[in-house]
Design a protein that fits this description.
The complex is a heterodimer of chains A (about 350) and B (about 400). Chain A is an all-alpha fold. Helix content of chain A is about 80%, strand content about 0%. The longest helix of chain A has about 40 residues. The chains are: A mainly alpha (about 350), B alpha/beta (about 400).
Chain lengths: ~350, ~400
């Protein structure tokens, strides 16, 4: 008996070490990639120039940098790099939570129609509010409020029939089709240019980031993630089935609603600025689960790190592979994420989900 | 009266134009493919001497025969469209559908009257300032959402579509329309590419027997472009950053705008990019230090000015936004105040020569003595388009004009 206990404790500690190592390695990779992608760019700045510019920005007055390098680093590169990290983190966290809440390996922030709703909101703004100065704000507000509306609609629909995971997925898929149809209808009435803009929005892009947007998204992700981690035990319980969770004292419906709403909020606040960056929310939790197992107390945050790495990697490639041309980042995420996923998937011996 | 018989007759009369349009030449009595003076004369005399009012079909046949005798030397006319397809017309066109606004504009330059046009696409019908005579005209939808029923119900005798832009959509329209009306001539004509514009215009002139006006239009273009070429070669080409109405979306070799920048004597800084319309990294503009920046307005987020003239004050606002972009204060174009906003109406379509003239003046201010884009614009509107030359006010199309 005692041996068994020690063995289990030992296993747990080894698992714990593995988790820590996983997150540590990811952090180092993200840091290296962030540094690299701040240095590399079509303006052809040297490492020294970038380094001086970064220091001059952090310690004003103490270091001096070439003003042009300073502008390029601080006004064009840094917020984009950081935005990729925060947005990738947020999308992956939302994905991990959605998969847990819905007990569905195919769930992602986009399963519940959040993304199609945002696209519809963006299409409304692109087609009906075409003016440059107010246009961007209108687009962000419109995309965000449509996703919020979709989240509320799912809540309402499943509330009506009791919130089972299945009914939530079903409601989400129905909404996805509805918003998809409405977007197509709008596109049908728009001009080629507007059509192109909507399609472009669907690819997702980090071209329009700024420090203000970064601050906003960081605030949402920064507040929401601890909340989700704090309730991660409940997600583990939900994974055993609603009845088990209930007998363990988890308020099933309340938990599911809370997690779903928070994950939707994170997703909406990111994609209203970037367009629909798919795939990260779906694949990051799977990669993480393959590496460190399905305990949501770790899974949620570790997925975030994986997501940050994928999005940052994808955006760095999108900026450099055909430089000075920029490829929409939504196209690159799959190219980066899938080999990573396949590697872990092939190595896995048993069923992991 | 026998009602069914009348109904059958009515249907036959409705079908008549299809049948006749596909037949041999009107008024070609001996069927040798040539309307001779004698044939025309005998037809006219036969009608005059009959003493009764001849049926409409006979009269319109005679009208067509006379027209062909005058304009096409009494024979059928074979015209090759921009896609290289040969089409033979055995009658003058009287009921055409035009789904390409550049072609319609060119038709107007060539004096093709509204009476020959039965329907247009919905964007033409929505431009009352530039196409006042087609405001609220019957519309057959757009190239992306064509209304086939409407198209066929207008009983057209020809359809005009783009040749190289939106090719897949236009191919599909041609395929579907000719499936139900195999004999309907579908002309694929661009009328927007500088290198083929005059050829396209000559094709239309041939179709409508307006060769004289065609020659006048060609002379107008050639003269204006010669002046541009002289200015363009007067000094070394400045490095130019050309931005479309999508921010940081530029153009490269292979695109029409690149050709126009080159024509005006500018060196496009992104000319060697493999994609024709690449979205580029903002910092690469700063790194390439353009001497002149051109921003295109007129669509997307930049709808203002142009023939409607609405919100023309936005030109200045947009220019200020460009000047204030991160890092742009180091660009020579911004330092020297050579940042210009231009409306697509004078650059995208047949009026490109006006936009190119403006650009040549911006690129080569010292060699631009002969260039007067504003009066060129006024002349185009007045002489070729039959519009109020006052519409050509520079405030609506460019900022700053000099």
């Amino acid at each position: 008996m005692q041996n068994d206990g020690e063995q289990i404790a030992g296993q747990y500690l080894r698992m714990q070490a593995k988790r820590l190592l996983f997150v540590a390695v990811l952090s180092v990779l993200i840091l290296l990639l962030a540094v690299g992608s701040t240095i590399i760019g079509s303006a052809g700045l040297t490492f020294g120039e970038v380094f001086a510019a970064v220091l001059a920005g952090i310690f004003p007055g103490m270091f001096s940098a070439d003003p042009l390098a300073f502008t390029i680093v601080w006004d064009l590169r840094l917020h984009r790099v950081l935005f990729a990290v925060v947005a990738g983190f947020g999308l992956a966290v939302a994905g991990a939570v959605m998969q847990g809440v819905l007990r569905n390996p195919l769930a992602s922030p986009f399963t519940l129609g959040i993304a199609s709703a945002a696209t519809f909101g963006a299409a409304i703004a692109i087609i009906f509010v075409p003016t440059a100065l107010s246009g961007e704000i209108a687009l962000v507000i419109s995309a965000f409020s449509m996703s919020a509306l979709a989240a509320l609609a799912i809540y309402g629909l499943s509330r009506y029939r009791g919130i089972s995971a299945e009914s939530m997925v079903l409601a989400g898929i129905i909404l996805m089709y509805l918003f998809g149809a409405m977007t197509s209808f709008l596109q049908y009435t728009g001009t080629t240019e507007q059509l192109q803009a909507v399609v472009f929005w669907m690819f997702g892009s980090l071209q329009n980031t700024s420090w203000e947007k970064l601050a906003l998204v960081s605030l949402v992700v920064g507040v929401a993630t601890p909340l989700l981690v704090w309730r991660a035990w409940d997600l583990n319980a939900l994974g055993m089935g609603d009845q088990v969770a209930q007998s363990l004292g988890v308020k099933v419906e309340q938990t599911r609603t809370l997690h779903m709403m928070v994950a939707s909020l994170i997703t909406a606040s990111i994609i209203c600025f970037t367009g629909t960056i798919g795939f990260i929310g779906l694949v990051s939790p799977h990669i993480t689960r393959l590496a460190i197992g399905g305990d949501h107390r770790y899974l949620v945050v570790a997925s975030g790190f994986v997501g940050a790495l994928i999005l940052l990697g994808a955006d760095s490639l999108a900026r450099t592979i055909l430089a000075p041309q920029i490829i929409p980042v939504g196209i690159m995420t799959a190219f980066i994420g899938i080999p990573f996923f396949l590697y872990l998937f092939m190595r896995q011996k048993e069923e992991y989900w | 009266m026998n009602t069914p018989l009348i109904a059958v007759l009515a249907v036959c009369m409705l079908l008549c134009p299809f049948v006749v349009a596909d037949a041999a030449l009107p008024g070609d009595l001996d069927g040798n493919g040539f309307i001779a003076k004698e044939e025309l004369a005998s037809s006219i005399l036969a009608i005059l001497s009959s003493g009764t009012t001849p049926p409409d079909a006979t009269l319109s046949d005679l009208r067509d025969a006379a027209w062909m005798y005058v304009h096409w030397n009494g024979t059928a006319r074979t015209v090759t469209d921009s896609s290289g397809k040969s089409l033979t017309l055995t009658r003058p066109l009287r009921r055409i559908i035009v789904m390409n606004s550049e072609t319609l504009e060119t038709m107007r330059s060539l004096g093709v009257k509204k009476e020959r046009i039965v329907a247009v696409d919905k964007f033409i019908a929505q431009k009352p300032e530039f196409f006042p005579e087609y405001a609220g005209y019957p519309s057959v939808g757009s190239i992306w959402a064509p209304d086939y029923e409407k198209m066929l119900s207008m009983r057209p005798d020809a359809l005009f579509l783009y040749a190289s832009v939106s090719r897949a959509e236009c191919d599909e329209i041609e395929r579907r329309v000719t499936a139900s009306r195999p004999s309907l001539p579908v002309f694929r004509i661009d009328c927007y590419r500088p290198e083929t514009y005059l050829e396209d215009a000559a094709r239309i002139a041939e179709i409508f027997g307006e060769e004289e006006k065609g020659a006048r239009l060609a002379a107008f273009y050639t003269d204006a472009l010669t002046k541009v070429a002289a200015a363009a070669s007067s000094s070394a080409p400045p490095e130019v950053y050309f931005e479309t109405w999508n921010d940081y979306k530029t153009v490269a070799r292979g695109s029409g705008y690149h050709d126009k920048v080159t024509m005006a004597g500018g060196a496009n800084i992104f000319r060697d990019n493999p994609a024709e319309y690449p979205e580029i990294d903002p910092e690469s503009v700063i790194a390439r230090k353009p001497d002149v920046v051109i921003k295109l307005a007129g669509s997307g987020k930049y709808i203002f000015g142009g023939y409607s003239g609405e919100n023309s004050s936005r030109f200045g606002e947009v220019r200020n936004t460009l000047l204030g972009r991160a890092g742009w204060s180091s660009i020579p174009a911004v330092r020297d105040g050579r940042v210009y906003v231009i409306h697509n109406a004078v650059l995208g379509g047949p009026q490109y020569l006006i936009g190119v003239t403006y650009m040549a003046r911006w690129f080569h201010p010292d060699g631009a003595g002969d260039l007067d884009p504003e009066s060129l614009h006024r002349m185009y509107l007045q002489e070729f388009q039959g519009l109020d030359p006052g519409l050509a006010h520079p405030d609506r199309f460019v900022f700053p004009a000099r």
